[in-house]
Input
Amino acid sequence: MQTAILEPPQIQKTNYTAVFIIGVLFFVFGFVTWLNGALIPFLKLACELKTDLQAFFVTTAFYMAYFFLAIPLSKILKVTGFKKGMALGLFIMAVGSILFIPAANARSFPLFLTGLFVQGMGLALLQTASNPYMSLLGPIESAAKRISIMGIFNKGAGMIGLLILSSIALKNASELETKILATTDITEKEALLDLLASRIVSPYIIIAIVLAVVAWLVTISPLPEVDTDKEDETIPVETRKTSVFAYPHLLLGVLCIFLYVGAEVMAGDAIGMYGRSMGMSLDETKYFTIFTLFAMLVGYIIGIISIPKYMSQQMGLKISAILGIIFTACTFLTHGYTAITFIALLGLSNALMWPAIFPLAISGLGRFTKIGSAMLVMGIAGGALIPLLYGYLKNEDHLGNSLSFFVCMLPCYFYILYYSTSGYKAGKKNPIKNNGV
Output
């Protein structure tokens, strides 16, 4: 029996069965992605890392996989199609999760980073497939609404995952940290660190099993294939583009994704380190990422209600960028729990950015949709580099904590504001203003 092929120009109604299945996928990879917020302080303690800069290599290893592998994996996607590509991505993530077992047994930070990189490989393939797939499962002007629904699955899973991993891996973290630092006997200290590292083994065994099972379920699921290689026949031959680089709005969108993801990871994964730099205990800061994710959930709900009925996805992006600028300035001008609150509120400003940027950037790419999607996924490397820059600058010998955060975040939101007003329509002769595409 042949798989049904959906051609983007013909999709007028949303396929809700497919949306639900993709929602399950977003739940799964959201669960894995946002564990980094707990892994950063956990690995800093378990692997005896000396600086925050070293700890932020957790996000670097994870997100750099997107940069190096998004385009090569898009070639695989051309062969496998969207559905099999998503299943393969889940299986690769399972392999990366298994690597956490020998890494924990050896307390090897490089091996942990290898496992994170492999997980990132799987996610790069999954993201390259699932995001354009979701954008094309219905009218493009409501793509931000569908991706916002996926965001609820993603961030809800992240909150659950962080609660579970923090409760297991970082249980009594402050007390254990004090005990490890105070212990002078090398044998006793090694035993404490081994015991701490072992806490992570069982959760990642379960994660690997779940990922493998979901990969199999996706393979046998009724997901329709989406044909993006066939150009819209209504486009005159003389106006068809011959290269993906002929779309300025896509290239500007790649940079926009880079800066957005960097800002999102800073607000989510770096919020704990920000609190630690102000003297807050590990028992408190281990839950801070959850506050950011909750704010993002609120943002997604707003997007689902308002897009495209009350505002376009382009307008949603513009408002989000302005809020990001305001909350970043407020973080810099305040201290303590007030500053932490404003960082968490950045989750609200970040929520609609991916759902808006992605469909705006791939709009009108036709047969270049897969490679364009891969280029946008490469932009996720912003989550690898911007937190690393923050980790370097926050050293007192450089800019310090609050100024480093301000310097890393503010340019991101100003560029996103530019993309929401002008960048998304660069190179388009007749941009459709009323729906933001």
Q: What stands out?
A: Confidence is low (pLDDT under 50) at residues 1-12, 231-238, 432-437.
